[in-house]
Amino acid sequence: MYDKDVAQALGIEASNFRKLKHRNSVPYFEIMTFLAKRNISINWFFFLQLPESLIEPTSNYIILKYQRTVTASAGGGAINYEVNPSPLIIDKQLLDYINSNYKYTEVLQALGESMEPDIKDGSLLFIDKSQRDINSKGVYLINTNDGLYIKRIEIKDNKVVLMSTNKSYEDITLNIDDVSIIGKVSGVLIKI
Predict the structure, then answer these.
(1) Residue 63: beta bridge partners?
(2) How many Å apart are CA 118 and CA 123, to the nearest integer?
(3) Which residues on adjacent β-strands are paired with residue 66?
(4) Contact indicator for 14, 8 with CB cutoff of 8 Å
(5) Has residue 177 got a pLDDT over 60?
(6) Which of 37, 46, 74, 125 could crosslink 115 through cysteines, CB 3.0-4.6 Å?
(7) What span, in angstroms and rounded, lies between the C-alpha atoms of 78 and 70?
(8) What φ, ψ does residue 83 adopt, rounded to 5°?
(9) Is the entire prediction scored with pTM above 0.70?
(10) For residue range 96-152, what is the model confidence (pLDDT) as tens digits?
């Protein structure tokens, strides 16, 4: 096999490949593209690491959407103008413990004190968007005209009552058409 053959396989001009080789420079991007198109493991190619050896260590984790710029009010409503999720890697055992569906769980931050002592200001909330059925024991992420809320919910006569845990806050009553249940809070991560 000649340099021109390698260059052609990598999609590089032969003269550029010669220059790279002369400078001891490796065309990593082109090599990775070549491997990916042929379903060849990059770890095997570079490190002689079999793909099977990676399954166990990585299969215990899941990547969730962390809505870092979105806050849900445990108080007077939170309007969010920018939605820019970033990945958050979580051990699957944690999601199993809080009984949250991997595919539908997102993470965001609580803002305010109306749900204390259960949910503290700044806590990370795991929202299972597949759980929208209301029950009296659940806490939900709710979208309203006033923004996002984290509240307990009760339905009375086509009205939705948003209830705080902290008794210093009054209930909020809204028309049922003005409320959208986004999901149930399945877990809370609190800083101490």
Answers:
(1) 89
(2) 10
(3) 86, 107
(4) yes
(5) yes
(6) 74
(7) 8
(8) -115, 115
(9) no
(10) 888 888 788 889 888 889 999 999 998 999 999 998 888 767 899 999 888 889 999
Own/partner pairs for 42-51, CB < 8 Å, 24+ apart?
A: none
Find, among 9, 4, 1, 49, the residue nearest to 31 by Cα: 9
| 98-100-105-107 Cα dihedral, nearest 10 degrees | -10
pLDDT at residue 82 is higher than 80: no
As a whole number of angstroms, the distance between CA 41 and CA 26 comes to 18
DSSP summary character for residue 44: H
What are the start-end ranges of the E strands in 112-178? 124-128, 139-144, 147-156, 159-163, 172-175
Phi-psi region of 45 (alpha: psi -120 to 50; beta: other; left: phi over 0): alpha
> Could you report the per-residue pLDDT of 24-67, keeping only the tens digit for each?
888 888 888 888 888 888 777 877 777 666 655 556 788 888 88
